[in-house]
């Protein structure tokens, strides 16, 4: 009998900033802990800005597709699909730049690709087995963002509001929300939507079997 070539399963999780993408991705990750699984965040692939001054970096539109090194992300995703390890970039929010360090990411059977603009890029979309859009009202998302950016990213309320009005909201309307049409599943209530998480994990397990990955692995590396 000819043995089927194994192929990892790719789940794309998108939605606006603060919608609950990370929470949903972690919920799926935790529910599939027995499998070989990883989360790849689009945020790690913000373009290198070493040639820019700090003032110039503050001017960057971080919600536009051109802010990301999508070619590198695509190259890495293709490597992971071939069961090759990647040197994942590390983003440093304090420097508004990619760090000089990289992290070795070993391939896994389940790849959760998470980020605001992953469904906007057809090349990435075409590699996904399941496309998920986490749908959360704008007012909830901005409130979450204010909390996160003032507590964890050292930004003032005025800065958060200005960035939201100048780039986050218009880019969401132009690129993120329209990408919802490509989603297989739209998840309201994000990580708290246990029915959606259960349905997704069951579907992932059935695709794993179809892709020749019917073994349950011990998760050696649980770093995200
Ligand atoms: N369904 C939910 N109910 C309440 N709080 C939530 C829910 N989903 C996410 N959060 C909280 O909202 C914040 C943003 O969620 P996160 O998953 O990081 O969003 P994203 O990755 O889309 O920016 C986090 O503090 C998280 O704990
Ligand atoms: N230097 C940066 C880089 C990114 N952002 C914001 O992050 C958001 C995406 O991440 P989420 O976890 O919130 O989805 C995006 O909306 C960028 O505006 C930033 O503020 N500064």
UniProtKB/TrEMBL annotation:
Family annotation (PANTHER family): URIDINE KINASE
Protein location: Cytoplasm
GO terms, molecular function: ATP binding; cytidine kinase activity; uridine kinase activity
Gene name as annotated: udk
Ranges where the Phosphoribulokinase/uridine kinase domain occurs: 10-196
Protein origin, superkingdom: Bacteria
Family of this protein: Belongs to the uridine kinase family.
The species this protein was found in: Apilactobacillus kunkeei DSM 12361 = ATCC 700308
Name this polypeptide is given: Uridine kinase
């Amino acid at each position: 009998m000819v043995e089927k070539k194994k192929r990892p399963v790719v789940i794309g999780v998108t939605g606006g900033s603060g919608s609950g993408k990370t929470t949903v991705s972690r919920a799926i990750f935790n529910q599939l802990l027995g499998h070989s699984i990883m989360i790849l965040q689009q945020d790690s692939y913000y373009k290198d800005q070493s040639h820019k001054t700090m003032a110039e970096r503050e001017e960057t539109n971080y919600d536009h597709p051109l802010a990301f090194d999508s070619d590198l992300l695509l190259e890495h995703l293709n490597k992971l699909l071939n069961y090759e390890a990647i040197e994942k970039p590390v983003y440093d929010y304090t420097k508004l730049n990619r760090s000089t360090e990289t992290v070795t990411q070993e391939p896994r059977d389940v790849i959760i690709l998470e980020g605001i603009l992953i469904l906007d890029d057809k090349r990435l979309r075409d590699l996904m087995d399941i496309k998920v859009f986490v749908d959360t009202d704008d007012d909830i998302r901005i409130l979450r963002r204010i909390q996160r950016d003032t507590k964890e990213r050292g930004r003032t309320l005025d800065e958060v509001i200005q960035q939201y009005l100048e780039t986050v909201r218009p880019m969401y309307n132009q690129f993120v929300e329209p990408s919802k049409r490509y989603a297989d599943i739209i998840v309201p209530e994000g990580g708290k939507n246990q029915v959606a998480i259960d349905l997704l994990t069951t579907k992932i397990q059935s695709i794993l079997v179809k892709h020749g990955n019917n073994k349950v692995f011990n998760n050696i590396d649980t770093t995200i």
